[in-house]
Amino acid sequence: MAGDSVDEAVRVAPAPALRGLVGWYSGYRQRGVPPSRHRGLPSPWLTLIITLHEPLSVAAHPDPGAPPGDYPTLLGGLHLAPALIDMPGRQSGIQVAISPLGARVLLGLPAGELAGTDVHADDVLGADVREVHDKVREASGWNARFAAVDDWLLRRTARHDGARTACAAPVAGAWQRLLSAGGRLRVDRLAAETAVSERHLRNRFRAEIGLTPKAAARVIRFDLARRRLAGHPGAPDLAGLAADCGYADQSHLDREFAALAACTPSDWLAQEFRNIQSGHYPPA
Predict the structure, then answer these.
(1) Which of 3, 5, 15, 206 has its CA 20 to 30 A from that of 179?
(2) Contacts of 181 (CB under 8 A, 6+ apart)
(3) Ramachandran category for residue 163: left, alpha or beta (phi over 0 → left; psi -120 to 50 → alpha)
(4) pLDDT score recorded for residue 164
(5) CB neighbour class for 9 (10 Å; exposed up to 12, middle 13-18, buried from 19)
(6) Dist CA 51 CA 184 (whole Å)
(7) Distance (Å, rounded) from C-alpha 132 to C-alpha 150?
(8) Is 19 helix (H, G, I), strand (E, B) or coil?
(9) What is the mean pLDDT of the chain?
(10) pLDDT digits (tens, 9 = 90+) for 79-101
């Protein structure tokens, strides 16, 4: 780190009572780094961003019809196309990874209602998120910031506790099976294991998760491949990675990157190399 530049990345687990609803918190702070453009890639987590100083500048959304804009707080559902984030050399905030199974409890609505979108978080959560935004910006240090988010989300779980049973079997069980299998589970087998028809599972999945089971499996497998790729940025074995993650071959992996990231695996590594090196992309 040279001169007055800052490039911090901190990742922690949420409070124990939130685990299963929230995957992790990622804190980031950058100052004096070269301007760049970041790809917000499809993943099996909903994204909540609470900025500290500058708003998040979204150049392109997963929904191509949504206009670019600046977001003090952002809430995004599961999606099948990348978002493009302009990084002008300084930005800071906290990213909260929310399980789609936790959306009803934490957000007050099913994840399906946010599918394919990135929106101002206060459009969904109202003054509630503006309050925690102020507390995070006033907090001193990452521990205090994460504690403010913990406290806020714990209060929301108490408020929406009755929603815990709304996303029940077969969706919850099928989602966990897909995650455990790394996305490598056929939809007909998934339906059979959850004792429902493929059509019923598909309709329930789309409503609760925001993706069909087939699309969700693609995203889970892609996210696993992308994180493993980030763990070996120097000399990646793409053919071996493809085999390990259940792709037919390297060409299949390349096609999935083209579809879900709008670039090749090598191009993504080159574009995100600084973020990977500084810890913004921890391997799975």
Answers:
(1) 15
(2) none
(3) alpha
(4) 60
(5) middle
(6) 35
(7) 10
(8) strand
(9) 91
(10) 999 999 998 888 999 999 999 99
Position 161 confidence tier, pLDDT thresholds 50, 70, 90: low
Burial of 4 (0-12, 13-18, 19+ CB in 10 A): exposed
Q: Delineate the domains of the chain, giving CATH numbers in brackets.
A: 6-163 (2.60.120.10), 171-277 (1.10.10.60)
Distance CA 125, CA 129 (A): 6
> Residues, the chain, total?
284
Within 10 angstroms of residue 134's Cβ, the number of other Cβ atoms is 11
Query: Helix, strand, coil: what percent of the chain each, to 5?
Result: 45, 20, 35
Query: Is 158 strand, coil or helix?
Result: helix
Could you give phi then psi for residue 194, rounded to 5 degrees?
A: -100, 5
Q: In the numeric block, which tokens belong to residue 182? A: 């790394």
pLDDT in tens, 229-282: 988 767 789 999 999 999 999 999 999 999 999 999 999 988 887 677 666 654
Q: Where are the alpha helices (DSSP H) in the chain?
A: 103-107, 121-125, 127-138, 142-159, 171-180, 187-193, 198-208, 213-230, 238-244, 250-260, 265-277
Burial bucket for residue 141 (CB in 10 Å: 0-12, 13-18, 19+): exposed
CA distances from 214 to 43, 217, 253 (A): 14, 5, 16
Strand partners, 26: 11, 95
Cα separation of the two ends of the chain: 26
For tokens 């810890």, name the residue.
Answer: 279
CA dihedral of residues 54, 59, 63, 66 (deg, nearest 10): 80
CA 229 from centre of chain: 17
Q: Which amino acid is at 86?
A: D
Predicted TM-score (pTM) above 0.90: yes
